[in-house]
Amino acid sequence: MSAHSKPGPGPMEQLIRKSVSDTFKPAELLIVNESYKHRHHAAMRDVDSTETHFRVTVVAEAFSGQSPIQRQRSIYALLKKEMAMEGGIHALTLVTKTPKEYEAALVAPKSDSHQEPAEAMR
Predict the structure, then answer these.
(1) pTM across the whole model
(2) Residue 43: how many other CB atoms lie within 10 Å
(3) Inter-CA distances, 56 with 2, 3, 24, 102, Å
(4) How confident is the model at residue 59 (pLDDT cuts 50, 70, 90)?
(5) pLDDT tens digit sequence for 33-52
(6) What is the Cα–Cα distance from 19 to 2, expressed in whole angstroms?
(7) Using H for helix, E for strand and C for coil, what is the string for 27-94?
């Protein structure tokens, strides 16, 4: 591996991918390991794991009829053991959508709430 190569997914990321895929059969699954952003936090000082913080986007028909809280709880329940283990998952940022919700979010116009400074002053 060269100095600029990105390492492949680690064992925890692979486990998340397999568990979520097997359970929810997602149309889209994006897992981003953000552990490097949190290495300096006090809770992480004595942790050797490089797989503690993940941003996970799951798009699955299995979420139809469920509230966002129900969807997130089902993923937390699925990964309960990995979240409880020493050096395991410390934090998950979850985005859970049905395919219809995901498609709508992709084509929705951007909000006007963030204007350029010159426009905001008019």
Answers:
(1) 0.73
(2) 10
(3) 27, 27, 13, 14
(4) very high
(5) 987 564 554 444 554 555 67
(6) 31
(7) CEEEEEECHHHHCCCHHHCCCCCCCCEEEEEEECHHHCCCCHHHHHHHHHHHCHHHHHCCCCCCEEEE
